[in-house]
Amino acid sequence: MSTPLKQIHLAAHFPGVNNTTVWSDPDSGSHIDFDSFVHFAETAERAKFDFLFLAEGLRLREQAGKIYDLDVVGRPDTFTVLAALAGVTTHVGLTGTINSTFNEPYEVARQFASLDHLSAGRAAWNVVTSWDAFTGENFRRGGFLPREQRYARAKEFLATAHELFDSWHGDEIAADPDSGTFLRTARAGAFAHHGEQFDIQGRFNVPRSPQGRPVIFQAGDSEEGREFAAAEADAIFSRHDTLEAGQAFYRDVKGRLARHGRTPDQLLILPAATFALADTDAEARELAHGIRLKQVSGQTALRHLEHVWNTDLSGYDPEGPLPDIDPVPGEHTLAQGRSTTRHHRDPREIARELRERAEAKNLSIRELVIDITARQTFIGSAETIAATINDLVQRDAADGFILAPHVSPGGLDTFAAQVVPLLQERGVFRGEYEGTTLREHLGLAHPDA
Questions:
Q1: Pairing mode, if any, of strands 9-14 and 51-54?
Q2: Helical spans, DSSP H, in 170-315
Q3: Boundaries of each Luciferase-like domain copy (predicted)?
Q4: CB-neighbour burial class of residue 365 (10 A; exposed 0-12, middle 13-18, buried 19+)
Q5: Distance CA 11, CA 28 (A)
Q6: How many angstroms separate the CA atoms of 445 and 266, rounded?
């Protein structure tokens, strides 16, 4: 008896807070006009995607005191956009990144419970942390949280939010059969949390939402992040999009679930993915190269190397060889609001590896940066991309993918029109929504079950 085919999960990321956006492309539209978000959401829903995703940048990234050239300036608030999209969509899930470092559990829980009501059960929360003082300058607790404490706060933040969501759950809560409204009881919404991070008590004023709790996403790839996801998340974002790396990550994270009393189907692995789609594989490769040239200008290439060298490299020719000077040791000062490998590895070792790679391939600075930051996960015709996605999912390198087109809002249109029908023909992707909530789309049980 053959093993049934896994069903593929697909989602769409409206780009903006990342390194893939080409906001200067003539096809790129506004990142603040609501029409852009509506177009993107309608495309995702027409293609029967599980959800759309909005990241959140709490401060514009800077390089040597100037706004980083790939950042999109003027991005509106995530919650506001998702709440507005709830009114113009009916099925597609609405996922937003909300920071656990610079917010409070009551505020965030109230917002997500409200969004779940407004969308009839389609809300999801990507729980993230922040540790850098640069971002913290925008908040009253600027820079107070050491890096090693960020997950301790995140874990208690999420646990506290769950207590708030669940405070309306139980036999004491009932609906009036005549009016459909909730009956008031003495215990409805009552909560009390006394912990190291939060000491709050009161009454939560949003009744139990359709999903009970929003779907929880997590994006950390560190040891702490993986363990946090295995214990708490419904899905984890991943950057591992090749077969071997994906399978290793898949085995590792799914293998952690049992010690938290969970089964493999209770956590989905969803790598972020980009694509270059054309009529033929050759045309797609040419398109991908053109996209990379737009993403990595000469100036961008130099700024990228400055993350490692920690010194001004503006005097170097981006079409020339790598700097012959050694990186400046110490804390990173040029790039602000961007995580870099300097936090984890000796920059001199990184520089040595980059020089060896450039020499072996005879690459200039710009060519090297293009080579090491290549992000087109899927390159080819619709047939090639559909086959590749299906192969990765069936071989347990992922449960699906979160697609981030390099332009918005129309960058998803061709994928929806050409690749999705091929996946449907293979019987590995839905032709119609079978449920109405995001939990149903993702195959996740209701927390009350």
A1: parallel
A2: 223-232, 243-255, 281-295, 298-309
A3: 24-394
A4: buried
A5: 20
A6: 8
Residue type, 425: E
User: Dihedral angle at the C-alpha atoms of 220, 192, 438, 92, nearest 10 degrees?
Assistant: -90
How big is the chain by its Cα radius of gyration, in Å? 23
Q: How far apart are CA 309 and CA 3, in angstroms?
A: 51
Helix (H) or strand (E) holding 276: strand 275-277
Q: Please compute, for residue 376, the number of CA atoms within 13 A of its CA located in the half-sphere on the CB side.
A: 21
Residue 98 CB neighbours (<10 A): 19
Domain boundaries, the chain: 9-279+376-442, 297-372
Q: Give me the mean pLDDT over the 245-260 stretch.
A: 96
Q: Judge whether 106 and 200 are in contact, CB under 8 Å.
A: yes
Closest Cα to residue 209, out of 444, 439, 443, 442?
439
**Tokens (6 digits) for 256:** 């952690």
Helix (H) or strand (E) holding 12: strand 9-14
9-279+376-442, which class in CATH?
alpha beta
Q: How far apart are CA 449 and CA 447, in angstroms?
A: 5
**Cα gap 161→105, rounded to integer Å:** 5
First and final C-alpha spacing in the chain:
31
User: What are the pLDDT digits (tens) for 336-382?
Assistant: 555 444 445 788 899 999 999 999 999 999 999 998 887 668 999 99
Rounded Cα–Cα distance for residues 218 and 231 (Å): 11
Give 378-388 pLDDT, tens digit per residue: 999 999 999 99
Residue at 243: amino acid letter: L
What's the token pair of residue 419? 């690749």
Question: At 245, which amino acid appears?
Answer: A
Amino acid at 189: G
Work out the angle at residue 402's Cα, subtended by the Cα atoms of residues 397 and 408, and round it to the nearest 5 degrees. 150
Q: In sequence order, which residues have a C-beta less than 8 Å from that of residue 111 and are 6 or more positions away?
A: 79, 98
pTM of this prediction? 0.89
Checking if the pLDDT of 399 tops 50, the result is yes
Provide the H-helix boundaries in 4-149: 34-46, 78-86, 105-118, 133-136
- Strand ranges, E, within 117-259: 123-128, 190-194, 199-203, 215-218, 235-238
DSSP code string of 335-402: EES---GGGTS-HHHHHHHHHHHHHHHT--HHHHHHHHS----EEE-HHHHHHHHHHHHHTTS-SEEE
